[in-house]
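Table S7 (text form). Paired inputs.
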Amino acid sequence: MEKITGMIQKPTCTLQEMIEEKRDGEEVVTEGMIHSIRDMGEVLFVIVRNREGLLQAIFEKKEPEAAEWKENLREGMAVRIAGRLHSEERAPHGKELQMTKVEILSKPAAPLPLPIDKWKMGASLEARLNQRAVSLRNLRERARFRIQEGVVRGFRDFLYQQGFTEIHTPKIGAKGAEGGANIFKLSYFHKPAVLAQSPQFYKQMMVGVYDRVFETGPVFRAEKHNTKRHLNEYTSLDLEMAYIDDFREIMGMETAILQYILRLLETEYAKELQILNLTLPSAATIPVVRFDEAKRLVAEKYHRAIRSPYDLEPEEELLIGSYFKEEQGADFVFVTHYPAKKRPFYAMDDPKDREVTLSFDLLLHGLEITTGGQRIHDYAMLKEKMEARGMSEEGMEGYLDAFRCGMPPHGGLGIGLERLTMQILGEDNVREACLFPRDLGRLLP
C-alpha cells in the first residue's frame, strides 16, 4: 500500500536557488510560464515567469531543436526547461539559462488579451479588471499584491507576538453591527439575514474569552456609492483588546503595528518596493488632534468654511493630511473625539463631554484608513444608549447576553486593507489595491 510521509521532493530549481547558490556551469531544471519571446536573429530569448520573478532562457538557432522550438513555443505556455546556467549581467537577476530541453506542460487556447510583458501595460483600469487573471501576470501588477500580503502578514505576526488570539466570525448574521440602511439583505432558509458589515459584535464578545483578539476577513457595505475610495466588499483588519484604561492604548497599538508592517515591507519586500519605485510612509511618531480642532485648523489655514459639524468631508480629510504634512512632516494623523451622533451606539462617550466619544480615525495622506476607539462595556450603559436611539434588541440577544454576564473594559479598531494598500502604493483608486473588486457595477470576474 502506498503511503505519503511528507512533501514530495522534485529535481527542479527555484529562481532563488539559481541566484544565491554557485551553480554557474551546472545543468538545472526549472518550471514556469512563458512571459515573452524575443527573436534576436541568431538567438531566441524565452523569458520564463514563476512566483519569484523572471528567468532569461536562450537558445541559438543553430541547435538541432531550434526550428521546432521556435515554431511551437508561445507566450502563456507552462513549461519545464532544462539547461546550463551561467552569469549574464544584462539578464534579470544576472543569470541566464542556455536551454537544452523544453517540455510543454500546457498550452493557451488563445493569445493573451493584454501585453503583460510590458513594464507598464498601458491598458485602462477597466480593461485590467475585466481581464484580471491575466493582467495580474504583469510584474508591476502582481507586485502590488505582494505588498498587500506584507501588510496582512505584518498585522498578523505582530499581534501574535502581543498575545492576541486569531478568530474567525460569521459573515451571515441576523443584524448589522453599524446600524443604518447600508446592509446587504438575504433570505437564509426563509429567514431574514444580512451580510456582515463588521465583526464588531463578535470580537467584543470574544474579549470576554481571550482578552485580545483579531481577525482578517471580508466585510460588506451596501452603499450605493461610486467613488474612488469605496468598495462594497473589502477586507478589514480588526482587533479588540481588553483591560484598557484609555482609548489611546488602542492608538498606541496601531502605531506599533504600522511600524512593524513598514519595517517588514522594507526588509522582506524590498524587491517589490523597487519594482514599484515606492517610498514608504513614516509611522515613527503620529500626531493626534481632536475632531473639532482639526476642523478649525484647516478652515483657518485653507480658508474653507466648516459645513458639516458632525463628520469630516473627504476634502476636509485631505486638507487635514496636507496640514500635518506641511506643519509636522507627518504622513499619518489620528483624529479623535468624534461627535456621538456619528458614532455607533457601542462607542464610549467621553465622561467629560457626552456629546463626543472616546473614538478616533487614522488618516494616511489625507484618507481615513482606520476607525476605532473605546467601547461601552457596562450592560446598563449599553442598554441605555440603545434605548435613547430607539434601537430594538431583536437579533442582538447573544451580543447583549455577553455584557449581561460581565465584560472587561475594552476597545478596538478596524483597518481597511485596500485603502491602506492604496495609500502605500500612491494610487488614487482603491480598485487598484483589490484583487477582484466588488462595487456598484462589478460582480465579475
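Next pair, protein 2 of 2.
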Amino acid sequence: MHKIREMFDQIHKRYDLLNHLMSAGRDIAWRKACCKRLPQKENAVVLDLCGGTGDFSLSFRKGAAPKLSLVGDFAEKMLEVAAKKDANLKLVQMDATKIPIADNSVDFVLNGFGMRNIQELDMAFGEAFRVLKPGGYFATLDFFKPEKTISKLFYQRIAPLALPFAGMILSKHNAYRYLVLSILNFITAKEYVAKAKNAGFALRSVKALDGGLAHIVICEKK
C-alpha cells in the first residue's frame, strides 16, 4: 500500500489530464451519470473516499448543495490538487480501511476508481457501511474485471499497450501500467455486488457504461 501511495503522489500533477485522455473524456460523463442516480438530500454530508483530486466531489456539488463535502485519500499530494480546485472541500488524509469518522454520520459515500487499489476490500466495505447513516448511499464508479466482449478486447489487448505508453509520454512514469493490471486483477461487478451485500448493503442499481468499460454500483444502508 505504501508503494501505491507513493506512485499516486508522483503522478498527482497530471493525474486528471491522463484520466481524461485515456478515457477520451468519458470519465467526466461517467461521474455525472453516477451523481444523477443518487437521491437528493438536504444538508447532506458527503465523503468522497479515495477521492484523489476531488473530481467526484465537484461533480456531486454541481447537482446538489451538500452541507459538508469531505475528500479522503491516502496520497497527500493528490489532496493538494483538490485543495486548489474548490475551497469548499474539506480534505482529510485517510486510510479507506480505517476511516477517522464517527459511526452513522455520513449521507453519501462516493468512490470513483479507488476500490480496486484497496488490498483489504472487505474492510473498506465495512468502514463505508459504518460511517453511513441508515438510509445513506454508497456509490461506486470503477473499472471492474472485464466480462463483455468490448471491455475484454479493450483491457486485455489494447490497454496493455496503449495506456502505459500514453502514461509514460505524459507523466514520465509507468504508473498506468499498474492501472491496467489493477483492472485485470480486480473482481467483476457481480463479485463486487456480492461483497457489498455481505457487508450489509442493499443493492439499488448496477449500470454498465460504454459496453462495460466501467460500471456504476449504488448500494443503500438500510
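The CA atoms of residues 66 and 127 lie 21 Å apart.
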